[in-house]
Design goal:
The chain is mainly β and 135 residues long. Helices cover 4% and strands 37% of the residues. The chain has a 5-stranded antiparallel sheet with strand order 1-7-8-9-10, with no helix packed on it. Strands 2, 3, 4, 5 and 6 form a 5-stranded antiparallel sheet that branches.
Length: 135
């Protein structure tokens, strides 16, 4: 449950170049696994859903840290505040924007929607957001 009812229709943007990452297949990212293989993947745009689509010749290992990059500017999307998380912007309207943090550890299903003093949690085994800031 969250404050946003139509979340699957919002845009997600790179915090660096501000390009929209949303494609018809989902939110597009370039990823690099621990073996150095680079691959384009599409994540489900609905928070709390962890489905993704990619070329199945590429495998992720449970617990591995996956690097995420903007497909437009190739900048790393690793959060500067939380190294185990990816950071993107979700644009609801011209005046309403949220920071979205999701785990970059394969198999860990944690997503945080952050706006000023508001934090919404999605996923499993969530950390208290204050604990997230202490990491």
């Amino acid at each position: 449950m969250g404050i946003l009812t139509d979340i699957g229709n919002y845009e997600y943007h790179c915090p660096h170049c501000k390009e929209n990452l949303r494609e018809k297949e989902g939110i597009e990212f370039f990823t690099k696994n621990e073996e150095g293989n680079i691959l384009s993947i599409f994540l489900d745009p609905n928070l709390g859903k962890y489905d993704f689509y990619y070329d199945y010749s590429h495998n992720f290992k449970q617990g591995e840290k996956v690097d995420f990059y903007c497909p437009d500017c190739n900048h790393s999307l690793q959060s500067s505040k939380h190294s185990d998380y990816v950071e993107v912007l979700m644009i609801v309207s011209k005046d309403v924007k949220f920071e979205v943090l999701f785990s970059r550890i394969y198999g860990v299903k944690r997503t945080y929607l952050v706006m000023e003093d508001y934090v919404e949690k999605h996923g499993e085994n969530m950390l208290d957001f204050d604990e997230l800031y202490e990491l």
